[in-house]
Predict the structure.
Amino acid sequence: MQVSGEKTLPLSFPLSPATLAAMYSKAPSSELGDFLKECRARISPRTVGLPASGTPRRVTGLRREEVALLAGISTDCYTRLEQGRATVSGSVLATLVRVLHLDDDERDRLFELAVRDECAPRRRPVRKVHPQLRCLLDDLNTTPALVLGRRMDILAWNPLAAALLTDFDRVPAKKRNYVRLLFTDPRFREMYPDWQTIARSCVAHLRVEAATCPGDPELSALVGELSVADTDFRQWWAGRQPAGLRVGSKRLRHPVAGDLTLDWDTLTSPADPSQQLVIWTAEPGTQSYDGLRFLASWM
């Protein structure tokens, strides 16, 4: 699938057609262009392995045609992108992150400028946990539980969930996302013996989110970040995914409580369907049940 005026991208990330369609947007004519110009101006041709031409350069940093060459797109396509006259796909954005050597904040800025927000205002208020879910969460003293919002953002948790999974207070609020932790936090990842199954289910959940709210810039930024950071995510996002689950069981390898097999379930808030309470339980009399009680005694 191609963007109008765009050649096949040999260096692009293998995002699915549905993902590309979801991430199409009209580029803001000035902000995106200015941002791209600033990014290419600070990169020398030598840094990216381009040979010296031997002729004086009239621009600082990379020329438009050089960025286009490195990104595997036509010069005309990239020029129209900077001028705000072209639509842009998620694969092009992910490639430009690599070509322009963008850090995390710059990557987020690129996606924010390039993706139209169809679901909510660009500047969103801090999401607050619904009062009913907060009451339930506070009452669960011997059951690990947390509240997930859109994109599987972690909105709240009880002490036992932090003891079981990770100290969420130490995770910056902007990075507090269950899928991000699964793919980028080595300790979080190693805790799950069945990591691949769980991770693929989470990718499937994000795919549903993308279909429900195709213009969500925060979701697009998250997908772009994880596509650049993790090969498995990139491949799974482009391929067929199993259906996302709302109930099931998970095996965990905990440094204090030992090996646990826990059943999990999700309760959706009728007042705000975007928020879900996720709880983990164990069959009474089992080793996992005793392990949770032992973990609770440490708090």
Notes: Confidence is low (pLDDT under 50) at residues 1-29, 116-125.
